[in-house]
Amino acid sequence: MEKTNKSISGFLVTFLALMGFWLLLSGYYDFAHIFMGVIASLLIAYITHDLFIRRRDITGLPTEIFRFSRYILWHFIQIVKANINVAKIVLNPELPISPKFVKHSPEIESDMAITVFGNSITLTPGTLTVSIDENREMHIHCLAEHHYDDLVESGMEDRVRHIFREGDR
């Protein structure tokens, strides 16, 4: 019975998240659009709820959502800063680039956290996560040498670990 309750609560949380996202992105609030959103969200939630919510209890979910929301805001600011930095490099007539590959071994445990970290690196202009091997070693391409240093100094890895309760900042 506990498995059924977990499954139902996971399904409901997934459905509500998808429906909220649909309403946010659609911008249309008439019956037809909301009905399509409900149908699509129900179908996708039914198929993927066990992928979205993978915990025994969802009591810690609000804290995780809050931490992730703070991280998204912080990461958005980092993206803006990196965009300005890359624009300065590209617009400089001397084009001072020094591309290089670096290897980084993060102290991250969960697959979800390593995925968020890798995607965050890729979303930040000037850096690209090329691969993550089976030992969780990341191969990162940087447009300029200082981009890797900026990445490490920003504390992105610690912030991702904090979201998933793998460490405190």
TrEMBL record:
Keyword Cell membrane: yes
Membrane-protein topology: Multi-pass membrane protein
Predominant place of localization: membrane
InterPro entries: Cation_antiport_E (IPR002758)
Statement: the UniProt record of this protein carries the keyword Cell division: no
Subcellular location: Cell membrane
Transmembrane segments: 7-25, 31-48
GO cellular component term, pick one: plasma membrane
GO molecular function: monoatomic cation transmembrane transporter activity
Protein keywords: Cell membrane, Membrane, Transmembrane, Transmembrane helix
PANTHER family referenced in this protein's UniProt entry, alphabetically: NA(+)/H(+) ANTIPORTER SUBUNIT E1 (PTHR34584), NA(+)_H(+) ANTIPORTER SUBUNIT E1 (PTHR34584:SF1)
Name of the protein in question: Multisubunit Na+/H+ antiporter MnhE subunit
Upper lineage: Archaea, Methanobacteriati, Methanobacteriota, Methanonatronarchaeia, Methanonatronarchaeales
